Amino acid sequence: MAVTTTFQKARLIDAAWEARAEEHEAQLRQLRLALQWALLHPARVDPDGVVAYAGWGDRGLSGDLAPPEPLAGDGAPLVAPDAPVELAAALGVPFLHAQQLMGDALELAFRLPRLWTLLGEATLCSGPRVWQARLISRETHDLSLDAALHADRLICAVPDRIGLVDARRLAHEARLHADPDRAVAEEDEALAKRGVWLRRDGAAPATTDVVMTLDTPDAELLDASVTRIAADLEQLGDTDPLDVRRARAVGVLADPQHALDLMSGRADAAPTACGTGSLDLLVHLTPADLAGEHGVATVEGLGAVSTRLLADWLGRHDLAGGRVSVRAVIDLADTRTVDSHDPPPLLHEQVVLRDAHCVFPGCRTDSRRCDLDHITPYLDPSDGGPPGQTSGTNLAPLCRRHHNAKTHGGWTYRRRDDGSYAWTSPTQHPYDVTPVSRAPIPTGARRA
Predict the structure, then answer these.
(1) What is the pLDDT of residues 363-419, one digit of tens each?
(2) What whole-number distance in Å separates Cα of residue 397 and Cα of residue 347?
(3) Which of 100, 161, 169, 405 stands 20 to 30 A from 345 (CA)?
(4) Do 405 and 82 touch, CB atoms closer than 8 A?
């Protein structure tokens, strides 16, 4: 029995090694295919000498393109703006993933040639992994060609230890080698990237991560203020752990008058109406959710929350002087039509509730940030267009990038009777898309 068990374990480990090798080959093949696809789509030059190329930026429907950052650094070829669109659809990934794959491939092949060669020669036991090489390529993207080649030499000096290399440090060293003044410029660039962002996890909508990049002295002052308010809350009887009180302290800082009262030692310090601002929540729920003890509401951008938690949020907002508004129920199957090009608010809401995302293959852009496209192009009635062209059956949400691909890039699509979409690419490949609705799942289906 012991011999058999040992043999089975050895076979499983052999299979795991084989899977690792297959994964490396598959990832490397995708990288090479992305490179070949990029080279088959060189950037276009119009009669006025303006170059249109794919980069880290969006184009308008008119095709105008503000100068974006190219997919890879100096010395790598520029590729056509629409090149990543069909590659993304073929791989079943969002546009930005395909764009990143192409950018990484170009950076490696043209600016990090030693690393690119080692990647192709890697074995299961030695050499860089694809994910490692791609991460390294993103650290060198902003270097001059000479600096990138210098970084390539530093990174590949000991091939078997590439996985342990601090690529960011070596890229910075190469940057300083090529341009000593870059250190000052980098400080200015870092300061220009300051900001505050909210990151929400749909699986835990009761909380939101706040990510901040601050000037270092400002960050130190914020930390001191949060620490002091957390201590004040404890003195007022808050028995929660320190981290929870610090989180609550940030909420207090969002209400300046409350924070001032609290830090001044006022015993009656409390949230103020002027400090609440606007609480905008788009909530979907059914009468059954309101009637039961364990109702579930869906909050757009957050996910599912219990009606108990929702009531707590709204109650606190109401006590602080907020206001709650209720919208009428919209029939997602409504077939009303209008003759104008732009849909009225109710029809617009119907479409973005019915299709929660851009309906292009692989795209997950929220439909509230999309254009509403006429599937059959709109023809002005004064030019002979028929009545009723603007309707739920002839409208679909497309993000600006994919609206542009449909309007100018040779993509076509139609909406089926079941609500799914059938797309055809410029290379005549078919793609099916089944959109996700914002409508609440029926209570019975949740419990089934």
Answers:
(1) 989 999 999 999 999 998 888 889 999 999 999 999 999 999 999 999 999 999 999
(2) 12
(3) 405
(4) yes
Closest Cα to residue 387, out of 378, 398, 397, 396? Answer: 378
Give the separation between CA 123 and CA 138, rounded to whole angstroms.
23
Mean pLDDT of 24-38: 95
Cβ–Cβ contacts within 10 Å for residue 26, how many? 11
